[in-house]
Specification:
InterPro entries: RNApol_su_b/EpuA. This is DNA-directed RNA polymerase subunit beta. Keywords: DNA-directed RNA polymerase, Membrane, Transcription, Transmembrane, Transmembrane helix. The chain is mainly α. It contains three helices and no strands.
């Protein structure tokens, strides 16, 4: 019988838990709908612009600071030809 009493107590606590959750869900339904400050389409455009900018900044930092070259040289075709030749060294 002790086992049966424990099951009844557990069932009561589950019912109480469900009632508490329904009260909480009711308060959630009354919440104001959030309006995004930056729309999703604008976020996509921002990310699409920031990726190339970060690649350029990374190349300038890597070539100018780490590589002891001039950071402006990353915009020259000869620099990229030289880097390509180093990578594809035979």
């Amino acid at each position: 019988m002790a086992l049966n009493n424990n099951n009844q107590e557990a069932a009561k606590s589950r019912e109480q838990f469900k009632k508490e959750n329904t009260v909480k869900e009711g308060s959630k339904r009354n919440r104001r709908i959030r309006v995004r400050m930056i729309p999703i389409w604008l976020r996509i455009i921002i990310v699409a612009v920031l990726i190339p900018l970060s690649a350029i900044a990374g190349a300038a930092f890597g070539y100018g600071v780490v590589g002891d070259g001039d950071a402006k040289d990353i915009f020259k075709k000869s620099t990229w030809t030289h880097i390509k030749d180093l990578v594809e060294k035979e």
